[in-house]
Design goal:
The structure holds 2 protein chains of 2 kinds. Chain A is α+β, with helices and mostly antiparallel strands. Chain A has one domain. Helices cover 18% and strands 57% of the residues of chain A. Chain A contains 2 helices and 14 strands. In chain A, the strands form 2 sheets. In chain A, strands 1, 6, 8, 9, 10, 11 and 13 form a 7-stranded antiparallel β-sheet that branches. Chain A has a 7-stranded antiparallel β-sheet with strand order 2-3-4-5-14-7-12, with no helix packed on it. The longest helix of chain A is centred in the N-terminal third of the chain and has 24 residues. Chain A starts with a helix and ends with a helix. By secondary structure, chain B is mainly beta. Chain B has one domain. Chain B is built from 2 helices and 16 strands. In chain B, strands 1, 2, 7, 9, 10, 11, 12 and 15 form an 8-stranded antiparallel β-sheet that branches. In chain B, strands 3, 4, 5, 6, 8, 13, 14 and 16 form an 8-stranded antiparallel β-sheet that branches. In chain B, strand 5 and strand 6 form a beta hairpin. Chain B is elongated, with a radius of gyration of 21 Å. The chains are: A alpha+beta, B mainly beta.
Chain lengths: 237, 245
């Protein structure tokens, strides 16, 4: 009887171990980050400095500096964490138009790597708009101002067809938006956030946003969870 | 124990290089200081960031920095010594403990203002950056998060007793911190001799980030002499038009 119990529990531990190790091996390169900026204001110089803050998480601070236009960011990216089976990118980004005309900006923040599905994703974005000019200012987007993508395909959008106005030297809160429990398949190349917007002259938009994903327990894991009451009842027996 | 990080933006390398080539390029001594409680900073470099002249009187400062105590910051500010300060400041507390911060922005003004009207506003966002499921940004000791300063003295404050929270992993909340002096009649301010500034004072939970966008504007009140001059110039222009007709 005791031998049977021992074998049964040992078997369960083996299955658990296999599942955990398979999740841990679904790697996401924690140091792999890609930042890109394009703007109608012209070309610019992009600098990003990654700093390791934990064994799996990196802080990226950087900027894109054009002629009278700039983007700065402070963004944390965590690769696949074997403890939580999760990865994320989040941080702050500031986009400034110091030219005398409205300008378009497209900013992409990407985590490079792969993760084995099924996955579940969540995300959020919030921000402010500052009109630093003496004229009425606007922050707009054609389509989504914020979008989350997997392997180049959009999986969620927020702030669709955004339209914000601000009086001279005023600050407008853009509100906060989020989603969660978004089912996804495996990630083979990258998970990314894209900001796409138009800023009037003298405008500044700032955002904090996050895009995270974690493993969904597979059928085998669920079956194991179902077994637990049986184990307990056998022990009690 | 409080630690001070002082960033003298006027000494930034980009600005310095341009100063040598153009005698009229003199960026204002815009100061950015961060005070952290409890943890030794171990000394910080000041030569990071950049400054650009946007117009005859406006200057744009931006930069980012991660210090040795687990705080990363970025800022993007437009200033005019005439004077106003506007921009966005973001800070992430990458440590395992909540921290109290005081962040000061200070701008020398020119010319001095005998009597002023003032206006200001702020808004911000708070993000659960470490995915712990919660984040908080509160006033330190119940004070104001935003304080407008003139000659380092309080002018107006916003967000007293603030308590902003996020209760979902990687969630974000946006908040409007309020405003002052943006309606009519204009809000009377003090005489300002040397500087205007904005002070942020707050306590941020571990592993989380906050971003503030803010404005502080001071305008001189026209003196009776200036008003009389304006009236006279209007009359003179009218007489000129009549003669032309």
């Amino acid at each position: 009887m005791n031998l049977n119990k021992t074998c049964f529990i040992f078997g369960l531990r083996c299955i658990f171990g296999c599942l955990i190790s398979s999740a841990a091996s679904a790697g996401f390169d924690s140091s792999g980050a890609s930042f890109s900026v394009t703007s109608s204001a012209g070309s610019g110089t992009l600098v990003n400095v990654p700093t390791q803050i934990t064994p799996t998480a990196w802080s990226n601070t950087g900027s894109w500096t054009g002629t009278n236009a700039s983007v700065t960011w402070a963004n944390d990216i965590q690769g696949w964490n074997s403890t939580t089976s999760a990865g994320f990118t989040n941080g702050n980004i500031v986009i400034r138009n110091n030219t005398s005309a409205a300008q378009d900006f497209n900013v992409t923040i990407a985590m490079l790597g792969n993760a084995t599905g099924p996955l579940v994703a969540a995300g959020s974005v919030g921000g402010q708009y500052v009109n630093g000019s003496a004229s009425l200012g606007s922050l707009t987007s054609t389509g989504a101002l914020w979008s989350a993508g997997i392997d180049g395909a959009t999986v969620n959008t927020q702030l669709n067809n955004a339209l914000f106005f601000a009086q001279p030297f005023q600050v407008v809160s853009l509100g906060s938006f989020s989603f969660n429990n978004l089912a996804m398949n495996s990630i083979t190349d990258r998970a990314s956030i894209l900001f796409s917007l138009r800023l009037s002259a003298g405008g500044e938009a700032s955002f904090t946003s996050a895009f995270s994903f974690q493993a969904v327990p597979g059928p085998a894991s669920l079956a194991l969870i179902g077994f637990l009451p049986i184990v307990r009842s056998r022990r009690r027996g | 124990m409080k630690n001070t990080i002082t960033v003298v933006c006027a000494l930034f390398s980009l600005g310095s290089a341009t100063i040598e080539s153009r005698a009229d390029f003199i960026p204002p001594g815009f100061l950015f200081r961060v005070f952290e409680s409890g943890v030794s900073s171990g000394g910080e470099a000041c030569n990071f960031g950049s400054v650009d002249q946007v117009s005859a009187t406006e200057w744009f400062f931006q930069g980012k920095h991660s210090n040795t105590t687990g705080t990363s910051m970025s800022w993007s500010y437009l200033v005019d010594p005439d004077p106003f300060i506007t921009g966005t400041f973001s800070l992430t507390n990458d440590t395992l403990l909540a921290k109290s911060y005081v962040v000061d922005f200070s701008l020398p003004i020119s010319p001095a203002i005998a009597q002023s009207t003032v206006s200001g506003q702020m808004a911000g966002t708070l993000t659960d950056s470490n995915g712990s499921g919660s984040a908080s940004m509160t006033s330190t000791s119940g004070g104001a998060v935003y304080t407008a300063l003139a000659d380092e003295m309080l002018v107006q404050s916003l967000m007293s007793n603030a308590n902003q929270t996020v209760s979902s992993a990687f969630g974000t909340t946006s908040f409007s911190g309020g405003s002052f002096g943006q309606g009519l009649p204009p809000l009377a301010g003090p005489a300002i001799n040397s500087t205007i500034g904005i002070r942020f004072s707050f306590t941020l939970s571990a592993g989380d980030s906050v971003s503030f966008s803010s404005i502080f504007v001071a305008n001189p009140v026209p003196t009776p002499g200036a008003l009389a001059m304006g009236l006279l110039s209007g009359l003179a222009a009218r007489r000129g038009r009549r003669r032309t007709d």
